[in-house]
Write a structure and sequence with these properties.
Chain lengths: 200, 469
């Protein structure tokens, strides 16, 4: 099961500001009543987008200027809350292919890497600077370079960080662990056999 | 020597190191439910794989199940499809399903422990972030996403990185009217909602030594709200007494051998921690949230923060929270009108929670205009509560007595808030839209505080309402 080696993600950007943007906001629970992940993309940030409309405003994800953006920028503790994989799935199916935030909640981070959607960290100051550049030229392409650990936009480079193991997994094409985990089931069985509570 | 419980359990379950440096960790017990499993079983079918250890996999239905009319087909087609999918997946794979007709159905984090499935020194995974609850038994328990559910089904392992350990000590005696729920809300207030990122929380100290297993579960349940994926309490006699005689607990000579092993999994007295924090139990008062994340919390007698009290970086979120909650900065939270009172959830839906409220609420009445519901955490809890006369006490007081499930904690079943109703809730999250209405408002608190809100129709000090001192 060969996975693509992910070393670079390029696309237009969209900034959804705010800290602690939680999984209930990313995908409200009422949209999780499904037995596949198909069609989840339209429900990403559903309520936040509806509120904005009701207030006569436009949520960044509905803003025409940022339509088709594939790199999402946000604040700290992004994706906090639930372990629901529906959250990164909704964003991925909305069209997002990479997220840049000040920090990520652990489970959301792990779920995203497993989907091959890099989550990288940048300082709040740099994120706001990138957001300004996107605002002034929504068509500008952001290039996330995982090898160089930077994001380039217009003529500016911003450093990014990503946990070593996730970095390794993405660039080596091992970001979905299932192949590795299946490799040595004998070793799994032998560990299990050593634990009394695992006995049938 | 010098090992934490995490060290010991991690070592005992390490299969090997994977190419990218992650550990392939054996997951001894896999709990599944209807929301995060269907896609995982689908992935298994696509990959042509089978469930590796069906006898180590246990299922229940909790998130979408109605708590009033539970006759199938459910009126919600999607919910009905989900329970049918789980039933079929379990039947096809030989997995034990604590289904509605078994009398053992309930919220997964209540069912595991009450069945004796949750045990010390084990690793546990479930596609739900409140899996941290099981750490109360000295297990290392992970909330996981659907792809990881697939990984555990197919390989009984996951690729994981060993967290650091922060020892969170609480010492001393809690004041009357202050509960385990207040302890964890206080800890999250102090350490922040992402303070635990990269850490497992070891809850310790004399307060925890004195806690019952149910109190320990309430605290461990909300580890994730503090950013710690894993939270645990070292197993001791309280743990062993709880487990003795339960359906899946070891029996006879196996019991004694198990207790010996379990005792050895506790952290060594000279264990090394990456961080240690200490709190004084006597300083904790009944705590309620005022905002839109569990860390935005105050004592009942305190005022909602004024904006300049909040650190600058948190001000935007604080303003958003105040606007959503329709609360005034700097004003008391006491007296805020309550529309709905919800007693239940994997945090506080256990027998002791119901007993504690029942003994105070007897003879009192839910205020006119307040919708109050009690949702026992499992059919087992409901059955014992009913035989003890608790259900009658709640009904006489004007609470609706419901069937077991996650219910109003996250509004995936018909129990939802309407419009901008404010709910006094014994659950674990107050995120915007959490309880099923985008404009709905959630205030988290202990079970007795929920009862006080139900009886007065406003956020109140339960100690005053019920004369607790």
């Amino acid at each position: 099961m060969a996975l693509e080696k992910i070393t670079q993600v390029a696309g237009r950007g969209v900034y959804v500001p705010g800290d602690d943007l939680d999984t209930d906001r990313i995908i409200p629970a009422r949209f999780m009543k499904c037995i596949t992940f198909d069609g989840l993309g339209e429900f990403a940030f559903y309520d936040a987008r509806a509120f904005a409309k009701a207030d006569g405003q436009i949520h960044p994800l509905d803003d025409e200027r940022f339509q088709g953006a594939s790199i999402l920028l946000s604040g700290s503790n992004f994706g906090c809350g639930s372990s629901r994989e529906h959250a990164p799935q909704a964003l991925y199916r909305f069209g997002i292919r990479a997220i840049i935030a000040e920090s990520f909640a652990e489970i959301f981070f792990g779920n995203s890497i497993t989907l091959g959607m890099p989550c990288v960290v940048a300082s709040g100051e740099n994120i706001r600077a990138m957001a300004k550049l996107i605002e002034s030229d929504p068509a500008a392409i952001l290039t996330l370079d995982l090898t160089e650990k930077k994001i380039s936009i217009a003529d500016t480079d911003f450093p990014i960080n990503i946990a070593a193991h996730a970095h390794e997994a993405l660039v080596a094409g091992r970001w979905d662990a299932i192949a590795d985990l299946l490799e040595d089931l004998d070793a799994v069985k032998s560990r299990a056999a050593a634990l009394p509570y695992m006995a049938a | 020597m010098s090992k934490t419980l995490l060290d010991k359990v991690w070592e005992a379950h390490t299969v090997r190191t994977l190419p990218n440096g992650a550990t392939q960790l054996l997951i001894g017990t896999h709990l599944i439910h209807e929301v995060t499993s269907p896609q995982a079983f689908g992935m298994l079918r696509d990959l042509g794989l089978k469930v590796l250890y069906p006898h180590r996999t246990f299922a229940t239905v909790d998130h979408i199940v109605p708590t009033d009319e539970r006759v199938e087909p459910f009126s919600d087609d999607l919910a009905d499809a989900m329970i049918k999918a789980l039933r079929k997946n379990c039947a096809d794979n030989g997995i034990t399903f604590f289904d509605l007709p078994t009398g053992k159905q309930g919220i997964v984090h209540i069912v595991g422990p009450e069945q004796g499935i949750t045990q010390p020194g084990t690793t546990i995974a479930c596609g739900d972030s409140h899996t941290s609850t099981h750490g109360a038994f000295g297990a290392i328990a992970f909330g996981i996403g659907t792809s990881q559910v697939r990984d555990v089904l197919a390989t009984q392992t996951m690729a994981l990185h060993k967290p650091k350990v922060r020892r969170v000590e609480v010492n001393g005696k809690l004041a009357p009217g202050v509960y385990a729920k207040d302890v964890i809300l206080h800890i999250i207030r102090k350490l922040g909602v992402n303070g635990g990122l990269g850490y497992a929380y070891e809850f310790a100290g004399s307060t925890f030594d004195a806690f019952t297993q149910e109190e320990r579960m309430t605290v461990c349940n909300m580890s994730i709200e503090g950013g710690a994926r894993v939270g645990y309490v070292n197993p001791d006699n309280t743990t062993f007494e709880y487990l003795k005689g339960r359906p899946y607990s070891p029996k006879g000579s196996e019991w004694d051998a198990a207790v010996t092993r379990w005792k050895a999994t506790a952290s060594d007295p000279d264990a090394k921690y990456d961080d240690v924090v200490t709190y004084n139990a006597a300083e904790i008062a009944p705590t309620v949230t005022w905002g839109i994340n569990p860390g935005q919390a105050i004592f009942i007698h305190e005022n909602v923060p004024s904006i300049n009290e909040v650190p600058e970086k948190d001000r935007a979120t604080a303003e958003e929270a105040l606007a959503h909650m329709n609360l005034k900065a700097g004003a008391p939270i006491k007296g805020t009108k309550v529309d709905v009172a919800f007693l239940g959830s994997c945090t506080n839906g256990r027998l002791s929670d119901l007993q504690e409220v029942a003994r105070h609420i007897k003879g009192r009445k839910v205020r006119n205009g307040v919708k109050a519901i009690v949702v026992p955490g499992s059919q087992g809890v409901a059955s014992v509560a009913e035989s003890m006369g608790l259900a009658e006490i709640f009904r006489d007081a004007g609470f609706e007595w419901r069937g077991a499930g996650c219910s109003m904690c996250l509004g995936m079943n018909p129990d939802k808030l309407v419009d901008n109703q404010l709910c006094a809730s014994s659950s674990n999250r107050n995120f915007k839209g959490r309880q099923g209405s985008p404009t709905g408002r959630t205030v988290l608190m202990s079970p007795l505080m929920v009862a006080a809100a139900a009886v007065t129709g406003e956020i109140a000090d339960a100690r005053e309402v019920f004369g607790v001192n």
